Amino acid sequence: MATQYEQIAQALRERITSGDYAPGTALPYMRDIAEEFSVSNITVRKAYGLLTREGLIESRRRTGVFVRELPDRLRLVVRARQIERDELGYFSGPEVQHWRAIPHPDGEKTRVTTAPAPADVADVLGVETGELLTVRKRIVGDPDVENHRQLADSWIPAWVTEEVPALSGDTGMGGMYDRVEEWAGRPLSWREEVSARMPSPEESSALLMPETGVPLLRALRVTFLPARRRQPERIVEVQDVRMSAELFAVGYPLPRGESAKWPVRPATSDYYQADPDELDGTE
Questions:
Q1: 3.40.50.300, 1.20.210.10, 1.10.10.10, 3.30.420.40: CATH of 4-70
Q2: Which of 278, 257, 260, 256 is nearest to 269 (CA)?
Q3: Most buried residue among 16, 144, 195, 254 by CB atoms closer than 10 A?
């Protein structure tokens, strides 16, 4: 059974989603909500806290609590996940061709350092968690829309920086992918894994996101050097790309698998009544 503050949050949530409380408008004072529902201010504060964590409202210092613009009322920028190229080099999708580097607070456009590999990055690269790797950190964004930006950290294995020393500093025109392809003499390939998580305070600040209630959209891009002769396929980079899930979505085609090649065979079982054991051929 829902608690009092959860019931109040549900009532306010319905008023927000129905438009009774429009985006940008101030919510009633806590004392007024407390009087309406015959509860204490503490109970109302818990309800407001729940809605804040959901990203529906935000507190503005000395002015009150306001309804935020809801993501489902906006048309998200859909990021097509494909590698493109122009005179500047490679970029990930036509929507960001005009994006440019945004300097870090210290003025650097690409911050190159060594840092302990996070657990998931280390797992992809096949190294120990915490192993020191070269990482190239960038903020990239739309020069015309201030909060349309992304963070991109490129984690590079030690053997790659040994073979291509330029990756530890200024990579020159075309960037790191051009330097690796020049060294290898063959094209790179890519795969991405998309997930979501809540941002750190530093990420929220860099991406100009609200302090609470909005998750990150995260694309972990793995860069491969294809197999050649007796050399197996190797991973040359893991790039951790983060952006606001409130502003961006990921779009990609869904290819037909081998079992769904056209023309298809007529279905022979009822989806809602079939026994799973019958479908997979077991008894």
A1: 1.10.10.10
A2: 278
A3: 16
